[in-house]
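Handout, page 2. Input:
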Amino acid sequence: MAKNILNRLFLMPAVILALLATPMGAYAASIDEKIDKYFAPFSDVFSKIVFYSIDIMGTKIPLVIVFLLVSSIITTFYFRWIGIWGFKHSLKQIFGKKKKEFNESHNSKCGEVSSFGALATALSGTVGLGNIASVAIAISIGGPGAMFWMCIGAIFGMALKFCEVTLSLKYRRFNADGSVSGGPMFYIAHGLTRKGLRWLGQPLALFFALMCIPGALSGGCMFQANQATKQIINITGGESSIFFVHSWLFGLIIAVLVGLVIVGGIKSIANVTSKVVPFMCGIYIAVSLIIIFANITHIPQAIMTIIEEAFFPKAVTGGIIGCIIIGMRRSIQSNEAGSGSAPIAYAAVKTKEPISQGFVSLMEPFFDTIVVCSMTAFVIIITGEYLNYREGITGVELTSAAFQSVISFFPYILAFIIILFAISTIISWSYYGQKAWGYIFGEGFKRTKIYQVIFCIFVVIGSSMNIQSVIDFTDATLLAMAVPNLIALFVLIKEIKNDLIEYCKKYDLICAMNKVWFKDEK
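Output:
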């Protein structure tokens, strides 16, 4: 307790002094211009490489998205639809009474947080503004049928999530201070080294970490703070709001709140997210259900429209192929299966069974996409607001219009939800970036505090600036992380399968769908 208090006293004054030394509001515009001038050319080139697209039935699809989709399909069939037959065991691991073999929480050497704490941290990183804004845009472009393919994409994504989380725990590192370090950096480097591919594993692990840090500072930090600030400005008077003139002030408030959490490490982060995630998701789902039941007579027609448009889309470029790609792309980008971010949080779980946490992670794509994203999509479809989509309108505005059709004061609720989503995402991504930072520069006390101070400063910067080149770079870095992660995953997939077979035999989880598969194994 005393150490945590000292940590907070050390960090917060440093953050505040650093922020006050830089008049964000006064120089935001000039900083925007300078960054766009010097950074945009590099960002454009990098984004074009990452988002190199191929034409599929008239629809331009980034090759990296195709790589992710194909990888999710391959792993799903390889593990015999584990997202379906393993779902019950996933629930048991999270909510059931765990056997001693499943959870060695009394032994500090087994990890730092509970299974639910790690799941909540991972969910707080994936359940964010994309569940509100990007889903609305996907429905507008891909039609109601995109919702169907989003759910299918989530089922495929479960297998990818299972693999990367299992590897994260298997190759995690226990530090001298009792903390745990894990994630793709470690299983890429050490896993491939064990296979005699050190020459490949080391540079790929370094590349992943180098992409994760800017991804955390921009997409996981600046973008979230920027969108939350815009929402608070909208509900506090627009241009007459104090936050319109001094937007950095709201960013400072967020930075202080975030700093007080992240300085305590993964235990503090998991403790906060375990409370915030159920609360914010509960509010959003409850409001969504109110809208749905207010339009209860339209439910049968909405379901029929979704199914019909999924297979016979009327206004989608590329027809059914375009609809499938748009829906599954949104699904993959929403739950981040294959990107390698969430395994960093799962690595800290108190368990000696990597496979058990792999099962727990199946719940993440399910809840993020099939539950939360589908709520957004169904509300937009059942209210018919997707038909009113106009060029230039943002996804947040479209979602707000759908909810506002029944609840007149919903924009205020939406602003509150967006702020919670943004803060929770910032908290989780701070940890992801911190572990990547530690992999490159070391995880000493001073090095970690330097990163945390930098991260909090970027929260304030993000609230004051609107740099499109940074946003483009963010999307590119987050997807670029998937490349080394998936390469390592396929190199190590055989050992995941062997570990899964042993685990299922040990805990009598052999079911009808995989019985033959296990019998064939020696």
